[in-house]
Write a structure and sequence with these properties.
68% helix, mainly alpha, 9 helices
Amino acid sequence: MKNSLIFILLGLLFTSCAQQGLRTQLNSSKEDALSEESFMRYSAERHREILERENSQKNPSVIIQALSACHQGRIEQGRNILVKAMNQHRDDPLYWNAVANCYSLEKNYPKAMFYYDMSQTLNSRSRISQAMIHNNKAFILMKLRHFEQARTELETAIKIAPQLKTPRYNFAQLNIQFGHID
């Protein structure tokens, strides 16, 4: 009797949850826990908002402008912005991270990894930028199916900047893919 009651309750739970459609579209950054850390999750409207905000600044960030262009599929435009800014940003690890991101979005993974490595050699004092670079390298490594290396990069990113959500999310996705759910 007890077991049949449990099965009935579980059945009701699953059918009631199945009737609720899974929302996959996020219309507001307030709904997205990763919105502050990842351009990949921005809609065209959110890109437009950030560019308007950047362009209203006295010194708009060319890195943000370039990344936004690349993430909207205008990779050549994004790279051109970065090329024009290279002399003033050549020692900035986030500049090379942006260059790598544009190549990554183009699925040119060898060049992306080259520029991520270049970004790491500049030895940023910012723990967050170091963690971002490790996370980005892990993303490429997962695409290339180098899962152990990706895991190491994600573990490093999490250790360096435990407050970041994106490396933890990617680490969870990697573990789910292999059924490592604890």
